[in-house]
Amino acid sequence: MFRSLPVLALTGVLLVAGCATPAAEPAAPPSSSPSPTADARDAVTVVKESFQRSFDAKSFTMTAHISVGKQQSLDMTARVDLAADAMVIALEGMQTPVEVVKLGDDLFIKSGQTGKKPYLRLQVSKLNASSPMRNSLDITQHSGLLGGVVTAEKRDGVAAGSVTYTGIADIKKAVEAAPDKAKGQLEPVSRLATNGSAVPYSVTVDAEGRLTDLSYTIETASMGDMVSEIQLTALGEPATVDRPEAKDVEDATEEQYAYF
Fold first, then answer.
1. How far is CA 153 from CA 163, 164, 204, 219, in A?
2. Taking the model in full, what pTM does it have?
3. Is 82 exposed, middle or buried (0-12, 13-18, 19+ CB in 10 A)?
4. Selecting from 1.10.287.40, 3.30.390.60, 2.50.20.20, 1.20.120.230, what CATH number does the domain 2-20+41-259 have?
5. Which residues form the signal peptide (predicted)?
């Protein structure tokens, strides 16, 4: 499980134990300038649509803390520019920190273990169609546990204009509605969860209905609780993603492509 966390984090964390899946029911795309009165919609719809509304900002910073039981945890920070097809993700909590940079079709991975040079370069188009890495890269296709939201109760927000919702989500409902890309990552978590039909969550949205905070806990018999805490900030603000210098990059071998 822990070996797969870097890949799972790419889905944004997003995030059922780092896994993600789209909304359980297709919803009409929000307008480019969503109304600040999100409560005109019912609470479940507000929660389900909140991640997409954040993605509509095109750029953002995401931070996440994902823990599995008492021994394993992962901290992630990501800067994302969807319009430029660029993102940089930093992962802490493993034996070696990991950095992932995506610029178009180029994917650079820095872990201190891939080769003589700091960064290993892969081309996304060369990854196998069933590659977990490839299938996790389009984070716009994911909305985490929110796809299986069953109930949502409105609470007071923690900041002016914000609203917090709490409720339960059903992982199996999220799996049923997920595209094939997300099913393969989400189904194992569904099988492990002992509270899969009633996962407690908390979501905070801003005045435009965009998700700013998400937390939830998945209980398992074998590994303990999987706890995810995610924040989205700097919505719509410039996100700079720098290309690693050529001298620090080596191309992946066929064996390495097979691994990813």
1. 10, 8, 11, 22
2. 0.80
3. middle
4. 2.50.20.20
5. 1-23
